[in-house]
Amino acid sequence: MAERILIIGSPGSGKSTLARALAERTGMPLVHLDQLYWSPGWREDDKPAWLARLDAALAGTRWIIEGNYSSTLERRLARADKVVLLDLSPFRCAWRILRRTLTLHDKVRPDMAEGCPERFSPGFLWYTLSFRLRVLPGTLAKLDRFEGEKVWLGTPREVATFLAAA
After folding, report:
1. Cα separations in angstroms, 29 against 52, 61, 102, 104, 118
2. Tens digit of pLDDT at every position of the chain (166 positions)
3. Nearest 5°: phi and psi at 118?
4. Which residue range is the domain that position 13 belongs to?
5. How far is the C-alpha of 3 from the C-alpha of 85, rounded, in Å?
6. In total, how many domains does the chain have?
């Protein structure tokens, strides 16, 4: 079994949900990148502070880390044993984002930093819809150089099968 697992993919693909379920099954510590990155009021810390928090998490011997933040993917890949890429339909992901926004509006999700309530953002919705075209190619190029185990899940059924086998 892998000791350090990255879960990446489009917003709305189910990264946090899968990570929580996998952490419950394995007992591995879970790190949500959104909690490391954001400060209350949706403020971004300076880059050195963000990277220091990330490096502290990466220094652990066992972990599940979920989130994107493409600028730090290579740093995370250098420590990971396994990467799980969630590549669900952009429309499914967008629908999940809209549903999450409606049901959790003005509430802080368990995988989000304190003081960062759920809100609607047309730009974030567009980012989600265009993720496969704009972000995924760069992610795949970085994954090509990753020597650990790679798991690519493209449907909810594949995610459920993966989790059942964990």
Report:
1. 18, 10, 30, 25, 24
2. 799 999 999 999 999 999 999 999 999 999 999 999 999 999 998 999 999 999 999 999 999 999 999 999 999 999 999 999 999 999 999 999 999 999 999 999 999 999 999 999 999 999 999 999 999 999 999 999 999 999 999 999 999 999 999 8
3. -60, 140
4. 4-165
5. 17
6. 1
Helix, strand, coil % over all residues of the chain, rounded to 5: 50, 15, 30
Angle at 117 between CA 6 and CA 123, to 5 degrees: 75
- Token pair, residue 127, equals 């980012």
pTM for this prediction: 0.96
Residue 97: both structure tokens together: 């984002």
- Specify the CATH number for the domain of residue 92: 3.40.50.300
Cα distances from 124 to residues 57, 73, 90, 106, 133, in angstroms, run: 26, 20, 12, 16, 15
Query: How is residue 38 written in tokens?
Result: 């954001």
